[in-house]
Each structure stands twice: as structure tokens, then as C-alpha cells.
Amino acid sequence: QVLLVESGGGLVQAGGSLRLSCAASGRTFSNYAMGWFRQAPGKEREFVSAIRWSTGNTYYADSVKGRFTISRDDAKNTVYLQMNILKPEDTAVYYCAASLAGGWAPENYDYWGQGTQVTVSS
User: Which side of the chain, N or C, has fewer Cβ within a 10 Å radius?
Assistant: First the structure.
């Protein structure tokens, strides 16, 4: 059974930082892209960042480029999203997902975590 378990969300003031973790289990993810998405109330789920597990290539939405960093730890089978200079508009539920195809479209992703809430106060 594939499991993606997110952690690290919380409440932070604008300008602060959080690090999200996504622990992956249940299969080998070496051929997968691991993505982070977010969904704010009343809005569609949107792409935030992704990393191709095998190559380490990374991708970012323009809205987070320069502030967020995605990384992976092979030994722990865990993907991280370091979020700096957080803004109130970053408030959302953040989801980890895995995809063979990769890309920015949620429908490309085969497995999803349960999500973790990030709230940025002004």
C-alpha cells in the first residue's frame, strides 16, 4: 500500500519559515516525480513544486520561486519543502503527491497524501 504522509504544517507570521516533510512508503519511487500542491478555500488545487527522484531536477511555480526549496532524502524516502519568506497568500492545505509522468497538472499524479495545513498570518 502506497502511503504519502505530510507533516510540518502550522501557523506562522508573514516573513517566517516552515519546512514540510513527505514520508513515502509502499513502493519504489525512484522513477517518480514527487510534487507539492496546495489548495486554499474556494480555489482549485495548484502546483507548487516538484522534484524528479532519479535526477534531482526541480521545478517551481512562479509564485514561490526564490522562496521555496524542494529536496529529497534518499535514505529516509522523504521529500521536503522548505518555505521561506511566507506570505498570507501562501495559506492553504499543502499536499504531497507522486507521479510517473510528473508535471504541474494534478491529474498527472497517481498518489496523494492527506494534506497539512499552512496558515500565514499578516
Answer: N
The confidence band for 44, taking pLDDT boundaries of 50, 70 and 90, is: very high
- Half-sphere exposure of 75 toward its Cβ, with a 13 Å CA cutoff? 0
Q: Percentage of the chain surpassing pLDDT 90?
A: 94
- Three-state SS across the chain? CCEEEEECCEEEECCCCEEEEEEEECCCCCCCEEEEEEECCCCCCEEEEEEECCCCCEEECCCCCCCEEEEEECCCCEEEEEECCCCHHHCEEEEEEEECCCCCCHHHCCEECCCEEEEEEC
Q: What is the pLDDT of residue 6?
A: 97
